[in-house]
Amino acid sequence: MSETDAESQNLELKKLETEQMSIKYSLYKVIFGTLIVGVVGVFLPFVIEFIGTYRVQTNEHRLYVDKYINTAINSNIDVRIRTAEYFSYMSDEKVQGRWEKYYKFLQEIKSETITDMSRLEDGKSSANFQITEYLIELAPLNERDNPNKYKIILDLISDERYKIDYFKNELNRLEQQLQNIQ
What we know:
By secondary structure, the protein is mainly alpha-helical. It is built from 4 helices and no strands. It has a domain of 74 residues. The longest helix is centred in the first third of the chain and has 72 residues. It is rod-shaped and about 160 Å long.
């Protein structure tokens, strides 16, 4: 054997080794490619179904909450308070704190409004009592006997009636505010 024959055999062996490596590489590509496509093919429907289910649940939850949000915004204060109290216990932890703050806010507004109404009712009662006192004092008087005192008492009665009208108007305003707090 000559050196050229040995070199040509060596060259052929290298070609065969290269061809074998190429075949092995192609086989590995087919195996791993098939494996990856298979895994993706198996898990992709589950991922798509999970995303679809999550979207449906999120949308249903949004619609559910929207229904109550409209109630919490558009109704009278008692319905708002009940709705806020419900969601302060039943909502997700992410929004539960905001519902609790809203509930406390509504409770404070209702309490302040009721206190104001009570104060106005007391003032109205006091004015009514004062008018009654003035009328009792005015009853035995005659305008001709003591015109100055008669005029003073009529002026006082007029002032008390003005106070009563003011208290009535304020009470009506507060009752309206209590029903429709914006």
